[in-house]
Design brief:
Elements lengths: L1 H13 L9 E6 L4 E5 L7 H7 L5 H20 L2 E2 L8 E3 L8 E3 L6 E2 L18 H5 L11 H13 L1
Helix pairs in contact: 3-5
């Protein structure tokens, strides 16, 4: 299951080329490990930044949410849902500009048209859309990209 999940994450990341999404440049595989070469981002994660500096200006808030929505819109147009949007999975390209964000961690992401979705009920408590929590295999229609929109709303509310 772990290897399938990593292969899925790599396949999804290969489809990405957006300024607000972490870029996969190369993959190096050894006998015991797989190394992913990603963009260098040095600002840490968004969660730590907002805990350190809890007051965020309206302009920074607007630009942050705009960049997040642009990144999520990009993946949705490619038939991908992230399913684990939260401040810890939003990275800062540098320490100076809070809204220069990069969406990361596609470990729970999936293609909407995929026949064999690895994890169906997944995400981080507090950010998961109700339809993801309630989903029952065989009885419910699989949820869609709106689950990410719910998570963006939670992040916006927290900010």
């Amino acid at each position: 299951m772990e290897k399938e999940s990593l292969i899925n994450e790599i396949n999804i990341m290969r489809k990405m080329n957006h300024p607000n999404i972490i870029k996969l440049h190369e993959i190096h595989e050894t006998e015991h490990s797989i190394y992913l070469v990603l963009d260098l981002v040095v600002g840490g994660d968004f969660h730590k930044k907002i805990v350190q500096k809890p007051e965020i200006t309206p302009t920074d808030l607007r630009n942050t949410i705009k960049n997040l929505i642009n990144a999520v819109n990009y993946i949705h147009k490619r038939g991908i849902i992230h399913r684990d949007l939260k401040p810890e999975n939003i990275l800062l390209r540098n320490e100076q500009v809070i809204y220069d964000i990069v969406l990361a961690d596609f470990g729970l992401a999936t293609f909407l048209k995929c026949e064999d979705i690895i994890f169906k009920n997944c995400g981080t408590p507090g950010y998961i859309a109700p339809e993801v929590i309630k989903f029952k295999q065989g009885t419910d229609k699989f949820y869609n990209e709106k689950c990410d929109v719910f998570s963006i709303g939670v992040i916006f509310f927290i900010l």
